[in-house]
Amino acid sequence: MAATGAQAANGKTSCGSASWYALKSKTASGEMMNPAAMTAAHKTLPLGSRVKVTNLNNSRTVVVRINDRGPFVKGRMIDLSKGAAQKLGFVGAGHARVQIEPADGSGTRSCA
């Protein structure tokens, strides 16, 4: 059974840098990477968990499912699919400062 966003993030909200990626390979969950899907890679959140990601520059939000591991670039907290990055409005920039919280909105704080 997949963890819910609240279980995955333990009710915590975190802030940091996000980037996007669009590979044509299998993800850590075993499924093929779909650049148009609302998915993401995170180092520690359980595969299958859902989190709400907010672009702190424009307040756009998207809910993504964690299906891969990463990012492997120092200082990055989450790698989003290209589709998720498009909805958040940062494909051109390549990265953005984001807030990540449980998809059910039960986060304990917000980013400054």
UniProtKB/TrEMBL annotation:
Pfam families per record: DPBB_1
Keyword match DNA-binding: no
This protein's record includes keyword Manganese: no
Any GO MF annotation of the entry: lytic endotransglycosylase activity
Residue ranges occupied by any RlpA-like protein double-psi beta-barrel domain in the UniProt entry: 13-100
Keywords, sorted A to Z: Cell wall biogenesis/degradation, Lipoprotein, Lyase
Main EC class the enzyme belongs to: lyase
Secretion signal, residue range per the UniProt entry: none
EC number: 4.2.2.-
GO biological process, one term: peptidoglycan metabolic process
InterPro entries in alphabetical order: RlpA (IPR034718), RlpA-like_DPBB (IPR009009), RlpA-like_sf (IPR036908), RplA (IPR012997)
Domain of life: Bacteria
Entry's family note: Belongs to the RlpA family.
Function: Lytic transglycosylase with a strong preference for naked glycan strands that lack stem peptides.
Protein name in the entry: Endolytic peptidoglycan transglycosylase RlpA
